[in-house]
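Re: weekly structure request thread

Next one in the queue (188 aa):
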Amino acid sequence: MKPLPAFSRSQLGVILVLAATLLGLYLWRAHWFFPPSPALPKIMHLAFVEVTGPVAHPGIYSFPQPPTLGEVWQRAGAPGEAPDKATKIASGTRVEVIPNGGYRLASMSAARLLSLGLPLELNRARAADLKLIRGIGPVLAKRIVDYRKDHGPFKKVEDLEKVAGLGPEKVAKIKASLVVGKTNGTAD
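Done, posted below.
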């Protein structure tokens, strides 16, 4: 029988360090000592509402869900009581408070919508608005508006593929920045 090879102290030390490292990696991967991280919470989709006019705090406000006009009125410090307190306000809406206590609803500017990660309504966007989207320059923006004038409103964002210069890949890249059929103002 052949005797086992003898290892020096330094060789035994290296073997022990490697064995300990492998055992540690195994235990770590098996979540032996540390349980796996909890699942990340779902992404919260905030509702953004801009308030302008004679209010104490004009600006853009975020809400965990579409707010009521009463909530918007109170946060902005608008004078008096909100005329239609229970009216739900859609994300991306601008509430213009009028000095006589009334209000008007409109869409936020395209630049504000895009900077907040909100989509533009494709059938209402002007060429100047569309060219703010990464991947759409002034030429494509004009083509989109011209196509819409000649053929009527788009039924879905994918219909942009019919516009010269916009293929499926380009439409897929800009799709998140556009929506069809959304109206800003009151929420359903």
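The chain has six helices and six strands. Strands lie at 47-52, 59-63, 93-97, 103-107, 120-121, 178-179.
Next request, please.
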